[in-house]
Structures are given as C-alpha cells and as structure tokens.
C-alpha cells in the first residue's frame, strides 16, 4: 500500500481538530499539527490548542514544542514534519496532518518555493520604514508592487509583508512570480480534506470561540506575555489587540471586538489560499464522518 498523508484544512473555528482526531482513531494513527500558532508552549488559549482530552485521544506532534523565544521557520517545520511523517509511516501507512496555516501545509505537501538571495540592507531599510511609518505604509507599497501577493498573504503579519517586499525590491520582480516552482516529490500520497460552511456561520463560530477564549482566561494569558510583546510569535490575532488594551490604547470591549474582526479576516484569507488548491475535497462542517472515510478509502 502507498504511504499516505491525510491533510485536513479549512478556516479557523470550523472543526478541523475534532475531525483529525476522529480520523486518527479510525485509522489508528498519529497527528501532525500544521498550525504555526500552536507551536509555542507559552500560548494556548489564544491559539486554540487542543484540550488535554483531545491531546490524549490521539498522539499529536508539533503542539507547543518550542518557545516564543526560539527561532523556528517554515523551512524548519518542513524538515521536521517530513521526518516525523516518515517515522509514522514505518508502522502505519497513514498519517494525519491538520492546520489552517496554508504556507506550512504547502511546505509539507509540495515543498517551499526557491527565492534568490536578497541584499540584507533592503530588509534593514524596510524594518526602519516599519518603525518610522507603520505597517500600513508598507502594505500599500506591496499593493502597488505586487497586487497578487497583496491579496493572498496575511497583511497583518509584518514579517510576511516585509519578506514579500524585500523580494519585490531586491529582484525588481513581483514576489508572486517566484511561486511557480514545480512541486517537490514526497515519499507519500497526499489526500486533502477541506471543511467549510456558509460565511455567516463561520463568522458566528469565530465570535463564539473568541467569547469562550475570554471566558477561559485569554486576558490573563496575554497579560503574562506583555513583556514579550515585541517578539514575532506574539504579533498575532488575539494577542496584539489585548496588548493595546494593557497599554491603555483601547478599551477591553473594543480589543475583543477587534480580535473577532481580525479573526474573521484571517478566516477569509485562509479560504482564499486553500481555494487555489483544486485537489481539495470539500465537506460541510456538519459532515457525515462515514462520507469522509468512504472518500478516503476510494482514494486509497
């Protein structure tokens, strides 16, 4: 039998974790997390890390395995995840991967694109511009230089914007023009399952999840990380908004409403990314598990 990776994707709060556990139990296998926000041991409530019961139900990898102080790139994850999948495949023909971080999923299933070396002075200049003028100015510059990337990446992530801009400026070509490399060969077949729902329902689930996070102690979690707020890992939805509350720039109610708004925007970008992948088999969030397992068995 061919070695297989079942990859579960979709927008945040759609139910990917629950499905991954059902499939892991069904196929008696282990789960690779490709949610880059859940890598960090200091962040759990705001990143929706699986509960203790969920983690015990099936063996998980890459959940809270590094610190926010560690340097860990998508390239590092590609290497480590491929190694772990190979280890799982020594005893099981099927492994599960779950996560909504599109770039990290792509790194494992298809490999990363190759980019030319860029003069490091360009990054230094862009960082200075970010400090002096803010992210919005850089976002607008990217929109002008590469509209395609502007529409596709996480614009609220300064590192993504800086990376795209430095390639545009350093090469004189759009960042998106380098995203055409052939897929890398993998020692396994990938079957990708997507979960989706009507946009209004996705947004309702997101709003409910944020309310539950707040009830479960998100505010205390973020306050404990306040001294690390400048670390890249913490420049993410659910944390950066509450930092503004603790710095007395925003009220708590406004910060929570911004978390909901920015999470909804994030979900929209996730769907934009995954819809480019024509190999995804989409199922409704309120799925019949037998329909999904039957589809997987057909593909096997």
TrEMBL record:
Subunit structure: Monomer.
Pfam families per UniProt: IPPT
Family according to the record: Belongs to the IPP transferase family.
Cited InterPro entries: Dimethylallyltransferase, IPT, P-loop_NTPase
Necessary cofactors: Mg(2+)
Gene3D superfamilies hit by this protein: 1.10.20.140, P-loop containing nucleotide triphosphate hydrolases
Keywords tagged on the record: ATP-binding, Magnesium, Nucleotide-binding, Transferase, tRNA processing
Transmembrane segments: none
Name of the protein in its database record: tRNA dimethylallyltransferase
Gene coding for it: miaA
NCBIfam families the UniProt entry points to: miaA
Summary of the function given for this chain in its UniProt record: Catalyzes the transfer of a dimethylallyl group onto the adenine at position 37 in tRNAs that read codons beginning with uridine, leading to the formation of N6-(dimethylallyl)adenosine (i(6)A).
PANTHER family: TRNA DIMETHYLALLYLTRANSFERASE (PTHR11088)
Keyword ATP-binding carried by entry: yes
Region (Interaction with substrate tRNA): 35-38, 159-163
Molecular function GO terms recorded: tRNA dimethylallyltransferase activity
Catalyzed chemical reaction(s): adenosine(37) in tRNA + dimethylallyl diphosphate = N(6)-dimethylallyladenosine(37) in tRNA + diphosphate
Superkingdom, taxonomy of origin: Bacteria
Sites where the protein binds substrate: 12-17
First-level EC class: transferase
Binding sites annotated in the UniProt record for ATP: 10-17
Record-listed E.C. numbers: 2.5.1.75
The keyword ATP-binding is assigned to this record: yes
């Amino acid at each position: 039998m061919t070695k297989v990776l079942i990859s579960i994707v979709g927008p945040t709060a759609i139910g990917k974790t629950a499905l991954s556990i059902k499939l892991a139990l069904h196929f008696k296998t282990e789960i690779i997390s490709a949610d880059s926000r859940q890598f960090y041991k200091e962040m759990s409530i705001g990143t929706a890390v699986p509960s203790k019961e969920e983690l015990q139900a099936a063996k998980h990898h890459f959940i809270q395995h590094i610190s926010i102080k560690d340097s860990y790139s998508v390239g590092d994850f590609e290497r480590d995840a491929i190694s772990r999948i190979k280890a799982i495949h020594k005893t099981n023909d099927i492994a599960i991967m779950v996560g909504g971080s599109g770039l990290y999923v792509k790194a494992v299933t298809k490999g990363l694109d190759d980019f030319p070396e860029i003069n490091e002075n360009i990054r230094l200049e862009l960082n200075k511009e970010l400090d002096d003028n803010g992210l919005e100015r850089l976002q607008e510059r990217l929109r002008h230089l590469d509209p395609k990337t502007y529409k596709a990446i996480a614009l609220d992530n300064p590192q993504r914007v800086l990376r795209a801009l430095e390639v545009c400026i350093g090469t004189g070509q759009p960042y998106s023009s380098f995203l055409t490399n052939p897929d890398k060969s993998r020692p396994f077949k990938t079957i990708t399952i997507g979960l989706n729902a009507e946009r209004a329902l996705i947004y309702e689930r997101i709003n409910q999840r944020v309310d539950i996070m707040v009830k479960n102690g998100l505010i205390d979690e973020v306050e404990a990380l306040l001294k690390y707020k400048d670390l890249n890992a913490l420049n993410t939805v659910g944390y950066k908004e509450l930092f503004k509350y603790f710095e007395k720039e925003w009220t708590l109610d406004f910060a929570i409403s911004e978390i909901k708004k920015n999470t909804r925007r994030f979900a929209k970008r996730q769907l934009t990314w995954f819809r480019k992948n024509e190999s995804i088999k989409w199922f409704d969030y309120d799925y019949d598990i037998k329909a999904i397992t039957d589809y997987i068995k057909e593909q096997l």
